[in-house]
Every structure is written in structure tokens, then in C-alpha cells.
Design goal:
A: alpha/beta; Rossmann fold; 2 domains; 31% helix; B: six-stranded mixed sheet
Chain lengths: 307, 244
């Protein structure tokens, strides 16, 4: 079972701070939907509004046929929420936490064991251990188990992979993909751009605005301008040395061991010559410029810059 | 040459009861280097950083940082290093200027020197106008840049950065790394941990820990060659998965 989520012109202010500025979006049934953006972009506020932990200043939220203001009790029954900060009971054991959440939703661990088996089996050997004594990765799995125990139709995960190492992050996403196959609608937020490509669709957020709402493929396809990667013998000083290179060059960003340069209306030969003439007097050697395809992070940098 | 190595670690063991958190670590960090210290959660990074920064003693082994032995000179050592972590950094209920004054005082800097340094560092960040603002009013990315500036205000020979860029946007992350490169070009050694694998590529050499041991240590490009892959992300996954 799954539901769609419809958000229409949603506004939320905290005193003078506009946390969400008229956001509208739809999440389809069974979709794995990503909210991508830095701290302070409004991801958590949006999740707290959907889960009725906050009330909006304006706009509507519908989860299935339920309205967030009128039917919040119904929405809570069908929503599983894993907050960004670990919010289970530290002084209860793994098993006690699960039983507690199952009981609140009028079910039992035994009845819904099959729903959480994939996640829970990994921490079951430690079921007598207090939640406060678990490692970070194990806490995360317990929180996910608790969010799933009442068979929600909508699962909301607020930055489940922040501070998690690259391998555990991959494993977590494999788990989400598997869960999605059971038909549940999943909304997940992350500050890691590379995780965007694992979602069906993503919303790129910044300062309470939606910069883009698309499939990861389309975000990349809609990238305007040309993207080049540059490497030289001195990558440490490269950004400082490229200051003022100008003429047709829009942006210069470090990208792993290379530098990514965006340009528009300028051919390779001209760009190549401009950069070589600019860098060679500053002692750079082995200057190599190649055209590359943008990644999600390039698109985000570009969209951020336009706004 | 030993004097060019700002960190020397030989046969470092750290045990908690039956659990070996650091299992025979051996490595050096060269003076002026940007050194990435990577590993999965629970691999033993935090334990090692606590030892390197003089907060914890090894069970056995030799550890020299900035010329001081962690076993016998940990107070001297602490005066000569900078430290910044995402979890513990500046005080939210002090102003920007007060945070500088507080940390400068801890490091025994003179009032005049604190004033000059504060001015210069805030000028570099283009934040002179915000010096009387409470820290909690500032965005996370600004706080991170301030925390870094505070960590280097006493001119340490080496600065430890424990996941300094978590949670901020990709532009702010890149600005932070330009600050790192700038300090590095002044000769300060940078010792940094991160979960962002593109940031691993920004380091001159990286080590990757798994289950208490250093499983790999080289330049990013050599590591990619060694493991026959194109990105540091793949190197990391290969090492961490092999151990599991």
C-alpha cells in the first residue's frame, strides 16, 4: 500500500525567517523521492509539516485523501518518520523500543516482523542491548525498524546517511531500493549530491526554494552551457591562479582531483588558448582541458549560482 | 629525514579491554602536507585522532606530534596544534569576536595579538561587519569557516579537522577547501577526516583505516592505480568491503 503526497503553495515562517517560500510538489504512489540540499534549505521543515509536527502559515498538504490540518490523526497512522536526530529511548533496549512503537500503533513486533526483517535481522543479535549503547550504524537501523513497524504507506527519512561512511551509505540505499519494491512511498533527504541519482525524482532545495524538480537524468540533460575539466601540475594553487581569467567563463569549481569550468559561447580552441596563456606564466605545466558530461553536483552548483 | 615529519607514529596500539581500536599503526605525516585520514565508522579514526591531539594516551607505541611525545609532553603538544570538529567547535551564545578572544586566551595569546589576529582573519572571511553578532545567528557554513580560523589563530604547526564540512552546500564546501589550501601554502600541516570522497581527492596523501588498521596509504592517484579504479569512492569501498 502506498499513497501520493500533494503539496500546494506551502509557506512556513519562523518569525522573520522564511523557511519555505511557496513550495509546490507532488510525490507519486510508490515513488522514491529525494530532497537534496544543504543545511538550512528547508528539508526538515517540509518533513515536519508533512508529519504534522509543525503547522504551515499557508498552503496545503495532502497525504492520500487526507488533509494535514483536518486529518492529522489519520496521516500519523499511515506515516513512518525517521528524524535526523536519533530520537528513540536511550535507556530502553532495542527490543523494548520496538515493542513500544508497535504498541503505540496497536500492533506487535510478532505481527509485523516480516516488514522489518531485512533491517531488523542485522541488529537482532543485540536486542537486549540499550539503544544508547549502540553504534551509529546500528542506531540508524533500529530507528528505521521503529519507523516501519506499523506498516506505513509513506516513509519519511530525514538525512538518514549524514555522517555515515561511504560503504554504509551504499548499503542503506540498497535497503531503501528493496523497501520501495514492497510498494511504499518514500521521501528521503540528503546533503550528498551523489545520492540524488539513486532516487526516481529529486527536488533540489536552497533557502526555502525549489531550484529544480526532475528525474536525475533530466536534471543532467537540462544543464546549460559547456562543461570542461582542467588539470595542471599545480592543483593546490589552481583556483587562486585562475582568478580573473574571464571572457566567456562562467564558473570555476574544484571537482575531486580536477577543476570543472563552465563556459558558454566559446569554442574549445579559444578556451584552451585563453587558459594556457593565463596559467603558463604562473608556472603551471601539463595543462590539460577536456570536455566532460555534468554530474548532479555540477547542475546544483550551476542552479545555485543562478539564484 | 625525521625533522621533516610532523607526525611520527610507530607501532601504535590502543586497547579498550578486549577490544583493539588501533592495531599497530605505523605512518608519518610530512610537514606542510594535506593529509586525509579516512575510514569507515568505527574503524578507529576518532581514537587515533584523540591520541594524536594529546587527549588520550596510547596503550603502547611511539607517537610524536610537532616534536612532542604524546606519552610525556601532551600539554606542550596541545599548545602547538589546532583542532576543529563538527561536534565541538565555537560557543553559540558568544559573539564572533568573543569566541576569538576566548580561544586566544586559552592559547595564552596577548590581548594585542588576539585583536590583530581577529581582525586579520575576519577580514579574510569578509566578515568584519559581523564581529559583534552572536554565533547562533550565523549560517552553518559561516560557523565552519570561523571555527577553522579560530583553530589556526595561534599559528599552530598542524591543525586537525574532524569532518569539518558536514551538511553544507557544495559551494560553501569548496570555499572551505580554499581556506585549507591557503593555510597549507603558509606551511601549516593539515590533518583532515571526511566522508566526502571528492574531498579525499583534495588531499596530497590519504590513509584508509579499517578495523583498527591502516589498510592503504598513498597519494589519491596512486591509490586509484593500485586498486585499478577511477575514483576514491571505489578505492574506499574496495578496502572497507574487503575487511567486512
Amino acid at each position: 500500500m502506498s499513497v501520493r503526497v500533494e503539496i500546494n503553495k506551502l509557506v512556513k515562517n519562523f518569525e522573520k525567517v522564511e523557511a519555505l517560500k511557496e513550495i509546490s510538489l507532488k510525490v507519486e504512489e510508490g515513488e522514491l523521492f529525494g530532497l537534496i540540499g544543504p543545511d538550512g534549505s528547508g528539508k526538515t521543515t517540509l518533513f515536519r509539516l508533512i508529519t504534522n509536527l509543525l503547522v504551515q502559515n499557508n498552503g496545503t498538504i495532502k497525504v492520500g485523501d487526507y488533509d494535514s490540518r483536518k486529518d492529522f490523526k489519520e496521516i500519523r497512522k499511515i506515516t513512518g518518520y525517521m528524524p535526523g536526530r536519533f530520537s528513540l529511548y536511550h535507556d530502553l533496549s532495542v527490543e523494548e523500543n520496538l515493542n513500544f512503537y508497535a504498541h503505540i500503533f496497536n500492533t506487535t513486533l510478532k505481527e509485523n516482523y516480516h516488514l522489518i526483517k531485512d533491517v531488523y535481522s542485522q541488529i537482532e543479535p543485540f536486542k537486549k542491548r540499550k539503544a544508547g549503547d549502540l553504534s551509529g550504524g546500528m542506531k540508524q537501523k533500529l530507528a528505521l525498524s521503529c519507523a516501519l513497524i506499523h506498516k506505513p504507506e509513506l516513509l519519511i527519512l530525514d538525512e538518514p546517511t549524514t555522517g555515515v561512511d561511504a560503504v554504509s551509505r551504499k548499503e542503506f540505499w540498497e535497503l531503501l531500493k528493496k523497501m520501495q519494491k514492497t510498494g511504499i512511498t518514500i521521501m528521503v533527504s540528503t546533503p550528498y549530491m551523489d545520492e540524488a541519482s539513486l532516487c526516481d525524482r529529486v527536488a533540489l532545495m536552497q533557502n526555502g526554494n525549489l531550484l529544480a524538480l526532475e528525474t536525475p537524468e533530466n536534471i543532467v540533460n537540462q544543464y546549460s552551457g559547456d562543461l570542461w575539466q582542467l588539470s595542471t601540475s599545480n592543483m593546490i594553487k589552481i583556483i587562486v591562479d585562475l582568478e580573473g581569467v574571464g571572457n566567456g567563463i562562467k564558473n570555476i569549481f574544484r571537482f575531486g582531483e580536477k577543476v570543472h569550468i563552465t563556459s558558454s559561447g566559446i569554442e574549445f580552441e579559444e578556451l584552451n588558448k585563453t587558459i594556457i596563456d593565463f596559467l603558463e606564466p604562473k608556472g603551471h605545466e601539463n595543462i590539460i582541458i577536456e570536455k566532460v558530461e555534468p554530474q548532479i553536483e555540477d547542475c546544483f552548483l550551476d542552479l545555485m549560482d543562478e539564484n | 629525514m625525521e625533522e621533516n615529519n610532523i607526525i611520527i607514529v610507530e607501532n601504535l596500539f590502543k586497547k579498550f579491554g578486549n577490544f583493539t581500536a588501533n592495531n599497530d599503526l605505523n605512518f608519518v605525516v610530512k610537514s606542510g602536507e594535506i593529509f586525509g585520514f579516512l575510514g569507515a565508522n568505527g574503524a578507529g579514526k576518532t581514537t587515533a585522532i584523540k591520541i594524536l591531539s594529546g587527549l588520550s594516551k596510547p596503550t603502547s607505541g611511539k607517537v610524536i606530534v610537532a616534536g612532542f611525545d604524546v606519552n610525556t609532553q601532551s600539554n606542550k603538544l596541545k599548545q602547538n596544534i589546532g583542532y576543529m570538529s563538527q561536534r565541538f567547535s565555537l560557543y553559540d551564545d558568544l559573539t564572533v569576536k568573543e569566541n576569538f578572544r576566548f580561544y586566544g586566551g586559552i592559547y595564552g595569546m596577548s590581548a594585542k595579538n588576539i585583536r590583530l589576529k581577529t581582525e586579520a582573519l575576519l577580514k579574510r572571511l569578509d566578515m568584519l561587519n559581523y564581529k559583534d553578532m552572536l554565533l547562533k545567528k550565523l549560517p552553518l557554513g559561516w560557523k565552519q569557516k570561523l571555527a577553522f580560523s579560530v583553530a589556526v589563530m595561534h599559528d599552530p604547526a598542524i591543525v586537525f579537522l574532524d569532518e569539518p564540512t558536514g551538511g553544507v552546500d557544495p559551494i560553501t564546501r569548496r570555499q572551505f577547501w580554499e581556506l585549507i589550501y591557503e593555510k597549507s601554502s603558509e606551511g601549516v600541516t593539515i590533518f583532515v577526516t571526511t566522508h566526502y570522497m571528492d574531498e579525499a581527492e583534495y588531499c596530497q596523501r590519504v590513509s584508509i583505516m579499517a578495523e583498527g588498521k591502516i589498510e592503504a596509504l598513498d597519494t589519491p592517484s596512486n591509490l586509484k592505480k593500485q586498486f585499478n579504479v577511477n575514483t576514491m569512492d571505489e578505492v574506499f569501498v574496495k578496502i572497507a568491503r574487503k575487511v567486512n
